[in-house]
Model the fold of this input.
Amino acid sequence: MRIVKAADIREEVLHLYKNGGGNVYYCGFKGLASHYNIKEGGCTDWTGYPGSGKTELLFELLKNCSEFYDHKHLIYMPDAGSNAEVVAKLLHKFSGKQFQEFYYDSEGNKQLIENRIEIADIDRHLTEVLHYFKIFNPKQNNRSKQVTPTEFWEYAVKHKDELELFSAVIDSWNYMKHDTDGFSREDKWLEATLSNRNELAESSGLHFHTIIHPKTAKKDKDGKVIMPDMHQLKGGSEWGNNAKSVVIVHRDFDSHSSDIKIDKAKPAIVGIRGTTSLSYDIKQGKYFEILNG
Done:
């Protein structure tokens, strides 16, 4: 151990001065850009109650970055469904056409979907989807929590060059195996795991996205569900302590508009804390800016 001297740190300081602390990438929405951009070698934790649209929004931002910058992503998303169901969601994004044959309206009536994707569309977009989204498929035949977060991140780092990866995505945290052997409490394991994640991201240049469910929803005096914050994430305060960026997606049950809150943005080049809103078009499977209400 020794004290850092000017000769040791000068080049790193000059690099920070000239480059602003790394590369960040615009995600496709002007209203979001001042609050959040995806940083090379960073981490983003996503949360929101079921049905809030957090997975949909993350898919959209990743797809935008693929189109803008040719980014490729390793995804492990058992919470979003089977591998085929995940691909179906992405086909909806890429084609702008719905995958399902029908849906149920607010009165419970079965409605046929008019702009359903056709087999020719599937064949045209499937190669494109799998070009940008690499689906991590563990060797085990069951769907148990067989993979630890660290194993997944280390796989991404090991195969970064081979797969030309920019990011790696977990959806959701509760599907991962929590290997707490050797730790007195789970929060100690979580602290060590997240610290290791941050170091892996910085050293490899990969961006790690993680979706985590919040604890039980809180309601206001009128019974309306309140947007969660990063301190409500399952696993305790270590998420807030070790997180780099935290994005919260919240949507009322009967609304097509989602509130996007950046509860933490680190480092400063990522953005600043704040909230914006996006409108979701269920037919196209896409979000849009809200202008003039």
